[in-house]
Amino acid sequence: MNGKLTKLEKFWILYDVGNSAFTMLVATIIPIYFNALAGGAGLSEVDYLAYWGYSVSAATVIVALLGPILGTIADTKNYKKPLFAASVLLGVTGCVALSFPRSWLLFLTVFVIARIGFSTSLIFYDSMLVDVSSPESMDNVSSQGYAWGYIGSCVPFILSLVLVLANERIGISMGTAMTIAFLINAVWWLAMSLPLLKHYRQIHYADPPKHPVSESFRRLYRTLKDIRRQKNIFLYLLAFFFFIDGVYTIIEMATAYGSALGLDTQGLLLALLVTQIVAFPFALLFGKLSKQYETDKLIKICIFAYICIALFAIQLDRQWEFWLLAVLVGMFQGAIQALSRSYFAKIIPPEKSGEYFGIYDICGKGASFFGTTLVGLMAQISDNASAGVSVLSVLFVIGFVLFCLSARLNRTKTGGFGNTP
After folding, report:
1. C-beta neighbour count of 270 within 10 angstroms
2. Distance between CA 154 and CA 148 in Å, rounded?
3. More confident residue, 324 or 48
4. Could you tell me the maximum CA-CA distance found in the chain, to the nearest angstrom?
5. pLDDT tens, 32-86?
6. How far apart are CA 275 and CA 20, in angstroms?
7. What pLDDT sits at residue 417?
8. How many CB atoms lie within 10 A of CB 41?
9. Residue 2: per-residue pLDDT
10. Among 185, 190, 319, 327, whose Cα sits 20 to 30 Å from the Cα of 296?
11. How far is 194 from 212, CA to CA, in rounded Å?
């Protein structure tokens, strides 16, 4: 990794390596396996794409409702680690359980549960950044997390890919191959979580009240009122809602979109593996660039790049175009996620990081239901998968404009906000 990183920063980065295995599954093998279950039940390709989008939306809506409350509770002294551990266990258990259902509807139900565990763990994990790192190191640490997460997730993914694609040569059924694949990814996720769970200590916190849950609701209400008054944070969250919504929708729907267009399954999986490999050096590159250039300018470059990517995806209908799309996404995917996370961590009160990142999750993964639902609805209404993808370019444009306004306010408030709070 980086010799300048502290031991705790390295442990924090390891969790990105662990949970990214599930992210990779969701982006690749899981939707293809669901496609097989749905096809066996007689669902059309358009309905398959729509129901996949709806299931992702259902999970993210639930997390959006729970996130701010759980995040606020996590800000109470000694609460963050056990809540984080519970979320990890829920996600890992759900990942293992995905191997059991043979009904497409039951499979989606288990997937939603696993996704809830995964997404809630990230609320606590992201908010830990203020405890494990300093403001001047956050951009680099956050970027390293995504970078090593991308390359690290390739290990269980390649093992899973070999099992799934070569199951007949190995002499096992597809069901058995999927069971082993889910187990490999679950064990990887859990193993990479243990160092952080063992060594993390909550530094920034609120003292425990007599009634933690009711007081958390009151603190959340006060924080929401504060955000309305802090226009720089409010506009940033609004901008983040739109541009990261588009990013996560591309991540969630890429394989499903390619499958709906009838592209070769093996080619789709290998192309997305290329995305992970490309994302590794570029996430590290943007982490280094954040030391020389202001973070908000780098985020603007990433959003503009995604506008171009979304426009290119509209006309995608060939395998080589999907490969090119995979490379382009890899160049900017880790950077925009990492820099957005660290940028937000630097403009919020550290003792309220759980609360703020709970709200952040609404505007990010918790709000990605908006993009996936729009894609699903547009695909069904028009009976054209490409029409669904066209809405993403609009999300990025809106996000770009709002982020420019937020960045201007941050600069005015801090006398030139860039890489320091």
Report:
1. 15
2. 10
3. 324
4. 65
5. 788 888 888 888 777 777 788 788 878 878 887 888 788 888 888 888 999 999 9
6. 13
7. 46
8. 12
9. 46
10. 327
11. 27
Mean pLDDT confidence for 225-240:
85
pLDDT on residue 419 = 44
Distance CA 263, CA 352 (A): 46
In order of 327, 330, 336, the CA distances from 280 in angstroms are: 11, 8, 13
The sign of the dihedral angle between the CA atoms of 261, 266, 271, 275 is: positive
- Render 379-409 in DSSP notation, one character per residue: HHHHT-HHHHHTHHHHHHHHHHHHHHHHHHH
Q: State the helix-helix crossing angle for 231-260 and 369-382, rounded to 10 degrees.
A: 40
Residue 375, token pair as written in the block? 């894609």
How many residues in total does the chain contain?
421
| Cα Rg, the chain, nearest whole Å | 20
Q: Which two tokens stand for residue 214?
A: 């009711």
Question: Cβ of 229: how many Cβ atoms within 10 Å?
Answer: 8
The structure tokens 């820099």 sit at: 339
Spatial separation of the C-alpha atoms in residues 226 and 9, rounded to whole Å: 30
Whole-model pTM: value is: 0.77
Q: Quick one: average pLDDT of 120-145?
A: 91
What gap in Å lies between CA 103 and CA 263, rounded to an integer? 24
Q: Are 122 and 365 in contact (CB under 8 A)?
A: yes
Kindly state the helix (H) or strand (E) to which residue 134 belongs, with its residue range: none
Structural domains of the chain, ranges and CATH numbers in brackets: 7-414 (1.20.1250.20)
Q: Are 29 and 358 in contact (CB under 8 A)?
A: no
Please report where in the chains the tokens 């929708």 appear, as a residue: 249
